[in-house]
Amino acid sequence: MGIFRGTGGTGDATTDATASQVGTDAATASTKANEASSSATNAATSETNAGNSATAAASSASGASTSASNASTSATASSNSATAAASSATAASNSATAAAGSATDASNTLSSAALKANNLSDLANAATARTNLGLGTAATTAASAYATAAQGSTADAALAASAVSTFGGTLVDDADAAAARTTLGLGTAATTAASAYATAAQGSTADAALAASAVSTFGGTLVDDADAAAARTTLGLGSAATTASSAYATAAQGDTADAALAASAVSTFGGTLIDDANAGAARTTLGLGTVATTAASAYATAAQGTLAASALQSTSTLNADKMTTGTLSGGTY
């Protein structure tokens, strides 16, 4: 039979295929052989891997058995949880029913309650509410019907309209102080500081005030002194200026202290006389009687006798032989 020669078909080597083609096929065969070898190696590796996988599968099967046992335990626990959940659901349902009842009660209560947003407009009876708050009729009376703080602390103390004169009415209704000054007829001086005008010491009016030109240079140094002590210094006064006059000799004692009666010139008796409080005490010190304060006309003169005892008395008897012509009280003799 014929020999396969490759792509050239059957025949001999020289007629069915070229040498070049044979070489190519040989290379391809070599490559295929290498691939087959690699495949065999890979198959051996896969076999080894399969053995490892079988071992892992056996381990997994053991783990699965354990997991199944755990799953059974979990299932039992889940069943118990389901039972508890059912109980909880029942309790929740009961709570929901109670909550619904409470909501209904709250809604009923709210429907009869006063809401903040309504500003008391939802009260059933405003008059009853005022009574409950202890409010009187003044609560619904306009403020203009009562005395203001400026009129008195209470209505009883308020200024009655009848006590305000027609002019007073034109004053108290002024809008501001400026309007009130106009009503009172006041000028700009009313709002000027008092220091801008002459004082009473300078004159009753500005026209009578002492002009600056009337004050001498020295006078200026006196009137600007801060106090009386400074003014005394400016005037050159000594300490005697502030000493009581009783500390010095009087005019009766001499014009100056040098001419005053010295204490050494006064006797002991004289001292008891000059310290008497009044003239009566002095007369007593001097030993004077009542005659000292009786008029001289009340006594006989020297012509009537040297003594009062020898003077002619009003009850004496006259001796006509010894009388000379003259006038007596009551007639002529």
Give a quick summary of the entry.
This protein is mostly helical.
Write the layout of secondary structure elements.
Blueprint: H1 19-111, H2 126-132, H3 166-172, H4 177-183, H5 217-223, H6 228-235, H7 268-274, H8 279-286, E1 327-328, E2 331-332
Antiparallel strand pairs: 1-2
Low-confidence stretches: none
Radius of gyration: 76 Å
Question: What's the mean pLDDT score?
Answer: 77
Q: State the total count of DSSP E strands.
A: 2
Sheet with most strands: strand arrangement: 1-2
- Annotation field: number of helices: 8
Shape designation: elongated
Task: Note the run of SSEs as H and E.
Answer: HHHHHHHHEE
Strand residue content: under 5%
Helix content: 40-55%
Termini distance? Answer: 247 Å
What structural class do the secondary elements suggest?
A: mainly alpha
Largest sheet: 2 strands, antiparallel
Structural overview:
By secondary structure, this protein is mainly α. It has a domain at about 5-95. It is built from 8 helices and 2 strands. The protein has helices spanning about 20-110, 125-130, 165-170, 175-185, 215-225, 230-235, 270-275, 280-285; strands spanning about 325-330, 330. The protein has a two-stranded antiparallel ribbon. The longest helix is centred in the N-terminal third of the chain and has 93 residues, at about 20-110. It is elongated. The mean pLDDT is about 75.
